[in-house]
Structure formats: structure tokens, C-alpha cells
From TrEMBL:
Disordered, as annotated region: 202-371
Ranges of Basic residues composition bias in the record: 229-238
Bias type Basic and acidic residues, positions: 217-228
The protein, known as: Uncharacterized protein
Biased composition (Acidic residues): 260-271, 345-371
Domain of life according to the entry: Eukaryota
Length: 394
């Protein structure tokens, strides 16, 4: 029974035969409808399109009477646009997607993949990609290949820019190997190149523009030296870390400026230097105390050069000196503990000055110079001089 129904209605073995049947039958229907409209003045219209993905049906439309004006007034589109909109609606329904298991977006991705794979296979170039905007110049003229079997009426564009009906037609042609890549032979390649060159001269084709060069090479071409390469974080190229010689020269300049300005950098060098040289921290002025009594024999001035000497020797020698023993080095006054004969004063005179406060009353210049460790004064330690020379007691 099913065989008899199929034989009566008709069945086609291929998509091409199916499409030919649609065009032939629809032509008869359109002529019959047109004759009917002329005889009766009736308005008739109709269309044919694909109803699901995978079909390759040529869109057909006919209209008799004011049908075009009606479609433009109510839908804002022509008859061809109306058919294309209807076909997109049919394909995007759930029934159409379930029939093939593939939507239009998946078809677009599959078309792009198949075209790219075929191009790389025929050119033996794995890095080559499809060019739609400059297809003739970059592919046909350069590699001697051509994509044949592109559906008629479908614009040669990226599949992602085509309408749903055009995507279906293109997918069907590629799947059936109708649309494929072909390698041109010598004569075909020569004729194709000649035809492309004529189109370029007439202005029908435009050659792709070369990418603009970087700032550095543009400056070299123009004879300008200002196009420098930029590194990360906005720094100028080759402005990396300073070398050891640069650091040493900068340190010497800062030290010389400190010597000339008594510990202060000039304003110009402070602005030019990346990191201002730290000013030396003022140190207290210790005094050498001997166990015989409170006796000032000089100042101990420590500096960077003195610290490099053996065991931190001070600028004042620790051994007694005739000039130091006989006079105060600060105010050039005779030492109150030393008599003219060089012998120490009597016990009673020394007892009166046991307290260091009494000594500073007599030598007021020393009061505010530094903080004194009074325990060290009265302890009478033999190594008082060594302790005072050490930096750790300040």
C-alpha cells in the first residue's frame, strides 16, 4: 500500500532532482494562477521554500494583483524578503532542529571548518586561512586554486554573515561535494591571473593594503630618530638598571657635594639625583674619662673613614700628650686637675670635684654637647677609654 502511494505521488532519488521537480511543478502552478487572476480579477499569491535544515529548495514566489503593495504596507518587505523570512521561521522551529540535530549556527561553524580544511589540503599549506574579501588576489592568483560549486543566488561572504536559507543551501552543496576546492592547471591559472589583473586595472578589485609599520621603522624611513621602542610600564627601551660604574660615579658626586656644602646637597643635584643622598646622622661627642679623676683630654670624633681603621680608632690618640695634659683643647684653659709642676692636686681639692656636675659648672661649654653616662664616670673603670670609643654606648 505504501509503495503504491509513493508511486502515485512521485519520489525523487537526489536533492537535485527534487529541486528540479519543485521548479517545474511550481511553474505550472504560477501560470495557472496568473490565468485565473486574468479571467476573474482575483488576487493570488504563493511561495515555495525549505521547511527544515538540509533541504536545497529554490525559493519561488508569485503574486497577482496588489500583493506587492500589501506586503510592503503590512510587513515592510518585498515578496522575496517575505519568502526568506518564512523559510528562516520554519527552520528555526523546534521541529526543524530535531529533524537534523543541527541548528544554523552549527551549520555555519561546520561550513567554515570544511572550507578551511579543503583549502589547506589542496595547497599543502597548513597555515593558510580562507579569504573572502580578497579571495581572487590572495588565493586564486597566488596559489592557483578556486572554490567551485558555490550555490547560485548566494552571496560569496563569510557563512556567519549569510541568512539562514543561504546557509542551508551552502551546507547542502558542501556536504554533497558539489562545492569543493579545485586546483587550476597551467592554462586555467594563466587565464585566471590575466582576468584578475584586468579587473584590478578597471577598479573592480582592490588589492589588500599592507599593514602599517611600527613607529620605530616609520621613523627610520622618515629619517627621524624619535620613534623609540617602549618597554613595559611606560619605561623607555634600554633604560634598565644602572651599572656599577654609574652608581660609583653618582656616589662620588654626592660625596663631593656633601664636603663642599657641609652635609647639604645643592638644590640642582637633589633634583637631578634619583634618590637623594642621606645626610649623616649627628653623633654625640664623647669625652675620655680616666680613673684618676674627671679629666678631659680631648674630643673623640667618629667618621666613616675612622670606622675603617683598626678597632675604630678615634681622631684623638688615646695616649697622653704633653699639649693635652697641660691644657684644655676646647678653650685653651689650664687643666684644673694638673698643677704647674705636673703633679696631681691634693686629695682635698680632688674630693671637692668628685661630682661630675661640679666639673660642668666650671666647664660650661661642654654641658649641651652630648649626653654623658655618669655611671661610667664614677665607676673608675680601667677600660673607660675603650668603652667610650665604641659606637654602641651612644
Amino acid at each position: 500500500m505504501e509503495y503504491q502511494e509513493a508511486k502515485f505521488r512521485g519520489a525523487r532519488a537526489s536533492a537535485k532532482a527534487n529541486d528540479n521537480d519543485i521548479v517545474k511543478t511550481w511553474g505550472k502552478i504560477a501560470n495557472t494562477s496568473q490565468n485565473l487572476s486574468h479571467r476573474t480579477s482575483a488576487a493570488t499569491f504563493g511561495f515555495v521554500c525549505s521547511s527544515k535544515p538540509g533541504q536545497n529548495v529554490t525559493q519561488q514566489f508569485f503574486g497577482n494583483g496588489p500583493i506587492e503593495a500589501f506586503l510592503m504596507s503590512k510587513f515592510g518587505m518585498t515578496g522575496e524578503e517575505f519568502v526568506e523570512s518564512a523559510e528562516s521561521y520554519f527552520i528555526y522551529t523546534s521541529a526543524g532542529r530535531i529533524a537534523t540535530g543541527m541548528g544554523v549556527k552549527k551549520m555555519q561553524k561546520e561550513i567554515v571548518r570544511l572550507i578551511a580544511e579543503g583549502l589547506r589540503e589542496v595547497t599543502k599549506n597548513e597555515k593558510l586561512s580562507m579569504e573572502y574579501d580578497h579571495y581572487d588576489i590572495l588565493l586564486v592568483k597566488e596559489y592557483g586554486v578556486r572554490l567551485v560549486g558555490w550555490p547560485e543566488g548566494v552571496r560569496f561572504l563569510n557563512p556567519h554573515k549569510l541568512h539562514a536559507s543561504d546557509v542551508i543551501k551552502l551546507y547542502n552543496n558542501i556536504h554533497q561535494k558539489v562545492c569543493r576546492w579545485k586546483k587550476l592547471d597551467g592554462r586555467e591559472f594563466h587565464e585566471a591571473k590575466k582576468e584578475i589583473e584586468l579587473k584590478v586595472k578597471r577598479g573592480e578589485l582592490t588589492e589588500p593594503e599592507r599593514h602599517r609599520r611600527g613607529k620605530k621603522r616609520q621613523a627610520e624611513d622618515n629619517g627621524d630618530d624619535r620613534g623609540g621602542k617602549k618597554a613595559k610600564k611606560g619605561r623607555t627601551w634600554l633604560k634598565g638598571k644602572e651599572s656599577s660604574s654609574q652608581k660609583l660615579s653618582k656616589r662620588r658626586v654626592n660625596e663631593k657635594a656633601l664636603d663642599d656644602s657641609d652635609g647639604e646637597l645643592p638644590d640642582e643635584e637633589m633634583e637631578n639625583s634619583d634618590k637623594p643622598h642621606p645626610l649623616p646622622r649627628p653623633r654625640p661627642v664623647p669625652r675620655l674619662i680616666l680613673k684618676e679623676g674627671v679629666r678631659v683630654i680631648g674630643r673623640t670624633v667618629l667618621s666613616d673613614s675612622d670606622d675603617d681603621n683598626d678597632e675604630g680608632q678615634s681622631s684623638t690618640d688615646k695616649t697622653s700628650h704633653p699639649a693635652i695634659d697641660s691644657a684644655d683643647p676646647v678653650n685653651d684653659q689650664p687643666d684644673p686637675y694638673q698643677s704647674d709642676s705636673g703633679n696631681n692636686d691634693s686629695e682635698e681639692e680632688r674630693d671637692e670635684l668628685d661630682d661630675p656636675e661640679d666639673f660642668f659648672d666650671q666647664v660650661p661649654d661642654y654641658e649641651d654637647d652630648a649626653d654623658i653616662d655618669y655611671d661610667l664616670y664614677v665607676s673608675g673603670r680601667d677600660d673607660a677609654a675603650d668603652v667610650l670609643d665604641d659606637d654602641s654606648w651612644y
